[in-house]
Amino acid sequence: MVYGAIMNNESNEKTVVSIDDAIEAIGMGPFQRRVLWAAGLCFTADATEVMLLSFLSLTLQSEWGLTDMQTATMTACVFAGSIFGTLFFGFYGDHYGRRPAFLLACALISLFGLATAFATGYPSLVGVRFMVGFGVGGLVVPFDVFAEFLPTSHRGVKLLAIEYFWTAGSLMTPLFAYLTLETSWRIFVVLCAMPCLISGIMGICLVPESPRWLLSMGRHEEAKAILRSAASANGIDPDSLFHANVTLKDEQVESSNFLDLLSSKWKRSTLFLWGTWIGYAVGYYGTILAVTRIFDEDAMNDAQNDNGGTPHFNYQAIFISASAEILGLIVVIRTIDSLGRVPSQVMSYLFGGTLLFTLSILSTVTSNSAILTALSFFARAFEMMGSCVTWVSTAEIYTTEVRTTGHAAANAMGRTGAFFSPYLVGGNMSMLAVGSIMLAIHLFTAFCACHLPETKGREIGHTSLDDDDIIADDDKDGNEMSFRYDDGIDGNVKPPSSRRIV
C-alpha cells in the first residue's frame, strides 16, 4: 500500500514523491470530511440562493406591483452576476489561491444575501441580487479544493457526496418558504443566506490552501506542511510519512489564463465541456421550470378562486420533485466508477430528455396526477445524475494550473444556459413545443458528453482529448517513488506506462 511504502523507506536517500502519491498516502479521513462540510455548505448556499428566486419573484411581483419584465429581470440578474463571477473567480483562484477565492465568494454571498432583506425598492434589490449571483459564481472553487485533497482511489464517489448538500438546499428552500414567506419575505432571504455564512466560518477555521496549487506556485514547504497536517488529522504520524528525506515533486507550472483553455492542448476538451455545461444547465433548470408549470395550473386556479389571484405554491409537489435528486445521487454514486463518467452522462441526459418530452406530451392529454408526478420525479432524478457526473468529470479533466479557470469557464457557460432557460420553457409556449425543444437540447448535451475524455481511474488532470502522448511514469533513475495502485488493488487504475489517452 502507499502508506506502507513510504513508512518502510528509512534510508538516507532522498526520495521525491508526487502530489498524487502523497494524497493517496494520506488517505481518506477526518481531514477530508471537514473540507467536505465546508465545501458542501457552499453547494447548499448555491441551491438556496437560486431556488429562492421562484418564490421571491412572484411574492414581490404581487407585493410591489412589478411588471412581468421586472420580475424576469429580478431572476435574470442573479444568473448574469454568476456569469461574471465564475470568470472572475476562476482567474482569481488560479492566480491568488483556492482558499482566498473560497472565502471571498462566501463573504459576498453572505453579505449581499443579508442585504437583500434590507432592500427598499426594485433598483436596490436588483443590485444586491446581482452581487449575490457574482458570489455564487465563485462556488465552483470549493468543489475544486475538495477534489484536490482526494486520493485517486476515492475521488469519484467522494466528489459525488458533495451533491447531497445541493439536494439539501433544494429541500430547505421550500421549507423556509413554507415557514416564513407568508409572514415576511425578508426573514425568508435571511434564512437562505445562512448556509453560506456558516460555510465561510468553517472555511476560515478548517480549510487550508490546496497543496496542489502551492506546488504549482513553487511553494513546496507550505504544501508539505499542509500535507503533514492532513496526515495528522487522519491519524497518521506525519514524521513517519513525510520524513526529512522526503521531498515533493516539483510541479511548478506557468500561470494560466482564459485563452489557455483554447490552446491546442485543451481546445477540443474545452469546447465539448462547454457544450455539455450549456446543455445540462438548460436541461436542469428547464426541467424544474417545466415541472412547476405543469403542476401549477390547478394551483393557480385554486388561488384565483380562493385568494383573488394571489400567488399560491404547491409545497407538496415541490418537495416530491426535489426529493428525486436523492435517488439520482444514490444511483450515480453506486454506478459512476463501474459505468464510467462518459456513459453515465450520456445515459442520464438521454433518459432525462425522453422523460421530460413524455411528461410534456402527456400533460396536455391527461390530468392523472400519479402518472405526471412519477414522470416528473424520474426526469429530475436523471437530470441530477447527469449534472453530478458532469461536475466530477470537469474537475478531473483539467490539470492544476488551469483547473479553476477551466471549471469556472464551464460553469459560466452553464450559467448562460440557465439564463436563457426561462425563455425556452416559460411564457405562452405550448407544452408540446417545450418538450420538443428540451428533447433536442438533451440530445445535444448527450452528443457533447460522449466526446469527453474518460477519467475513471486516472489521476486527476491526466486526460485530454488533444493529447495523444503516453502518460509517462513518474519513476525516473530510481529517484522518485511511485505508489499508484495497480489493477489488482483498485480495479481501475492501470500502471502509467500502459495508459494512453484516446
TrEMBL record:
Protein localization: Membrane
Segments forming domain Major facilitator superfamily (MFS) profile: 35-453
Keywords: Membrane, Transmembrane, Transmembrane helix, Transport
Membrane topology: Multi-pass membrane protein
Protein name: MFS transporter
Organism: Skeletonema marinoi
Family annotation (PANTHER family): MAJOR FACILITATOR-TYPE TRANSPORTER HXNZ-RELATED, SYNAPTIC VESICLE GLYCOPROTEIN 2
Domain of life of the organism encoding this protein: Eukaryota
Transmembrane regions listed in the UniProt entry: 35-60, 72-92, 101-122, 128-147, 159-179, 185-207, 271-295, 315-336, 348-375, 429-452
Classification of source organism: Eukaryota, Sar, Stramenopiles, Ochrophyta, Bacillariophyta
